[in-house]
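For this section, I looked closely at a protein sequence along with its fold in token form, which I now present.
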Amino acid sequence: MKIQTLFCHLFFSSVFLNGLDLSSGGVLSKSQASIDVHHYDIDLRVDPYKRFISGKVKIKFTLLEATSVFEFDLYQSFTISGVLINGMNLDFEHKNHTIFIPNPDIDLFDTHQLVIKYGGSPPVAKRPPWDGGFTWETSESGHPWVGVSCQGNGAHVWYPCKEHPSDKADSADIKITAPDPIKAVANGLLVSKKQKDLWTTWHWKTQYPISTYNINFTLGGFNVVEKTGYILNKPLKIVYYVLPEAEKGAVELLNLTEEYLNFYANSFGQYPWIKEKFGLVHTPYWGMEHQTINAYGNAYKKTKLGYDFILFHEMGHEWWGNYLSVADWSDFWIHEGFDTYAEAMFVEEKFGWDMAIQFVDERYKKNIKNDYPVVMDKNGTTKNPAGNDVYYKGAHVLHMLRYLIGDEIFRSSLKEYISMPKELEKNQTSTKEFISLIEENTGLDLQWFFDVYLYQGELPILNVKEKFLKEKLLIDFWWENKGFVMPIEITYNGHGGKTTRKLVLNNKPHRVAINKKEKYELDPDHWLLFDTNRDFK
């Protein structure tokens, strides 16, 4: 999801205070859990002048357990005109943003097709992309310019689906009929475009697994700027669908895209959707990580270090969030914290370690609240009260983990985590699975680290007790938190000049003696997050 340079990306907990009262995730009902969705075929006519959408969605699914009723999600304001399963017309009830359909006794473990015909005015996004819905704008040419955002509120703000992070479809077809001369741009590759009566149907298809919120489209009078890039020496179509008034700068954007993609590929493995494209589409909101067609509305702005933050960040979600994804929003930090930390790795590679230290201090530390755990109880929703800590503190947890286990194991583990076989299908994962990988690769029990930094809100407390004895300053250090054994570096001037030591601390005092006239600095490279309880005598 989109991040501002200062307030990096999203006050997720506040999104819903003034916007739609809809969210994704939570506890699956028995009926919802019985369904495994394989494919969405979305076929909609979008009238930007009336701000109205209509059409049908075909959902291929397997029934895994017996259930008397099927439940699918769709925003309540839409009118449903028909529901069919395997060609049979069925009764239904639409209430509380859920469609209830009686089971006509279909077979278990076979593939079935549900068709839902509907239409209506979708909700208007008040603060896209944080608040879900449609953004209806007009470009300088006078043509409609339409964007869709739905990560926080769920894809059911515009099409019927099983709105839950645990169920990624195997593939999707997106057919959008829009008035000429505007284009409809969506995920995957363009299969066809068919014109009839001054309207054109744009048929896009992705053959990769995809989350519901990543299925997306944008309308506009776009020009197409493209190039063939080479990612780890493999050819990739890189394309930007941009309004004519913003085309100046598009070529440079694509060149930056190739550079940033190679950074991610070198760090985490090949671009996951190499057989389709890396697409950007000019949107009337800042940005969002829609798989193979990232929303981009940053107007080519650069950070003070000279890189395009929105381009870089949303691109990173192609690895962290789109390819590797979570089945429970309680683990959302894996999408956002990992992607956010990739930026620190990029800053280090491009501008050096000193700049990376400054970046971590200014971007992460200053914005961490510590009010709630980063990882909440299971069956989480997108109304995560941890807010920005999912991003900043999540990223800083990885920074500290790198310090704890070493750079080589850390980097190789991240790359392994992306592509290794998972307990869940379609490359879905959990915090517990990540912890298991790190412990396996290090041979260490690190639950004490994750318990404090992920599963509680408060920071660990370092006790520091100082006293003078003749010409010496005696300092005792120990952690207040039971079982917490994080090492910490200390720098001071010794007999041989400046000395840096790594103290292995636990719950018992560890004494350091220095000349009373000397000053010392704890954690000189600012690796760690902790509070200090000081006692001076």
User: Anything to note?
Assistant: The longest strand covers residues 35-47. The domain at 328-453 is CATH 1.10.390.10 (Neutral Protease; domain 2).
